[in-house]
Write a structure and sequence with these properties.
452 residues, nine-stranded mixed beta sheet, four-stranded mixed beta sheet
Length: 452
């Protein structure tokens, strides 16, 4: 008999070590290492873990985008790239209670309403709990089957017997394989369960949803290789203080990445938000200093977001710098540029920057919006009504061009804005004005001439 070796694995990120460590060198988590067995012959190997396929010419393979399976929810289809691809594996992560199970139950209900059988596998709730949630969100179709099971072999057997149109496993951390001695949710169990479920999905062409727990820093718990094994990784984001939820595509082999879908949490489940720009600007104050509107592009969707800034004299020896929804290091950089190049001295001021609505924006196009909001708050002069700004700000004060400017301009015009301040590029000079008044700027000094 071959000797069974042991190693220690971090339960947050999957980092392995030959000895126990108090702090993980990969994710900096404390007391996360657990001893697990390492077998020379990996579980799941053999003929059942092979595709048994043969080489074939690429031009002889039939694949059409029209073969995608629609989820029946437009925002979900947008994030997936147009719908579910046969045999695709989708990993969905998010904070506890944010609505992952509710959303996927609604997706299965939409598919089942079209006459297709779907399977919801749960290891965290009872069948009665699923029934109560389904009754609340309107999931009452006879084609929606619920399986309460954590045994991997039993789950695989039921999927092969039922052969549903789509499968949801809630959650992958609860699935247990008896070939491993470690507990459910450990690195080895998550890797083994995911590998065999994804392999079955590829063989049968059944789309697979895997719900994953997240760690304290917001990343999906378990081995990092899990995100590489699946085809699509979706993160469900949102603040419990807001009714809106955002599902974001981090990885997608069949569509654009960083695409987002916007939902509103209601008593009867999650409802789609068709016009996010209108939602995020609904409560924007009129004539208030420290507010600027930026057309941000998430994937292929333009969204108008409001950036607010508050600049006030500090009462302490060290001024505070707080940023919510944008990178704090980016805000510090722009404050230094304003002080050195723009002549607006913020060294002795507390600075607070916030993106309203709980949205997080990371693209450099919001630089000009942050600068405009800071200048407006410092000077106590509101930005002229009906104005949107976007562009990247360099360290020497120059305004650099960004991608998809036409998409941003069209979204601003559609929402009724009249003025647009944007980088001065060759394409900008040739662009017709139309109904929107265009003000190209090349430096911060030019920005202040058009801003107020």
């Amino acid at each position: 008999m071959k000797k069974i070796r042991c190693a220690f694995f971090c339960q947050n990120c999957g980092h392995s070590s030959p000895k126990w460590l108090g702090k993980c060198p990969s994710c900096n988590g404390w007391n996360t290492f657990v001893e697990e067995e390492i077998r020379d012959t990996q579980p799941g190997t053999g003929r059942d873990a092979a595709y048994d396929s043969t080489p074939q010419p690429l031009d002889a393979i039939e694949a059409e985008d029209s073969e995608r399976l629609s989820t029946g929810i437009a925002e979900m289809d947008r994030v997936l790239g147009g719908g579910l691809v046969a045999g695709s594996a989708v990993l969905v992560g998010g904070d506890p209670g944010i609505g992952k199970s509710t959303l996927l139950l609604q997706v299965l209900e939409k598919i089942a309403a079209r006459g297709s059988r779907v399977l919801y596998v749960t290891g965290e709730e009872s069948a009665r709990q699923i029934r109560l949630r389904g009754k609340r969100v309107g999931a009452v179709s006879a084609n929606l089957l619920v399986l309460v099971e954590i045994g991997l072999d039993n789950i695989l057997r039921h999927i092969q017997e039922v052969h549903p149109a789509a499968v949801v496993v809630d959650s992958i951390q609860t699935v247990y394989s008896p070939v491993l001695s470690s507990a459910p949710g450990s690195v080895g169990q998550v890797r083994e369960a995911s590998e065999r479920l994804i392999l079955l999905s590829k063989k049968t062409g059944i789309p697979l949803f895997l719900i994953g727990h997240v760690t304290k820093d917001g990343s999906i718990a378990g081995p990092r290789v899990l995100e590489h094994m699946v085809d699509t990784v979706l993160y469900f984001e949102g603040d419990s203080n807001y009714a809106y939820r955002i599902i974001r595509s981090i990885k997608n082999r069949f569509g654009p990445t960083n695409e987002i879908g916007v939902f509103e949490m209601r008593d009867n489940g999650l409802a789609e938000v068709d016009n996010p720009s209108e939602v995020f600007l609904a409560e924007r104050p009129v004539g208030a200093a420290g507010s600027a509107v930026v057309p941000s592009v998430e994937g292929t969707r333009p969204i108008l977001v409001e950036i607010q800034a508050l600049v006030s004299p500090t009462s302490f020896g060290m001024p505070r710098r707080t940023a919510i929804g944008v990178d704090q290091n980016r805000v510090s950089l722009l404050v230094a540029v304003l002080d050195k190049i723009g002549g607006i001295h913020l060294g002795n001021s507390d600075i607070f920057v916030n993106v309203t609505g709980g949205l997080r924006v990371v693209e450099p196009a919001v630089d000009l919006g942050i600068v405009s909001a800071l200048a407006s708050s410092f000077l106590d002069r509101p930005v002229e009504a009906g104005t949107v700004v976007f562009g990247e700000v360099g360290l020497t004060g120059e305004i650099r061009g960004i991608a998809q400017a036409d998409v941003r301009i069209r979204e601003a015009a559609r929402m009724g804005f009249k003025r647009c301040i944007l980088p001065k590029t060759r394409e900008t000079r040739k662009r017709p004005r139309g109904d929107l008044e265009i003000h190209p700027v090349g430096h911060l000094r030019e920005l202040f001439e058009h801003l107020f």
